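Quick note —
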Amino acid sequence: MLAMLAAVTSRLGLAGTILVPHVTPAGLDAFADRVVPLLQERGVFRADYTGPTLRDHLGVGVRT
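Predicted structure written out below.
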């Protein structure tokens, strides 16, 4: 369901989706283990980073 939400968000041209993790830290582990691979298969969550800096990861380029 979350993978579909991310795909719809992308199709609508929205900037992204904010998810609130479960109360326990294990909630993040479950998300990373189960949901992130589904999002990557659909092409809505990166599998690799594009460069070494946060600016590269966010795609904002070099500040002038």
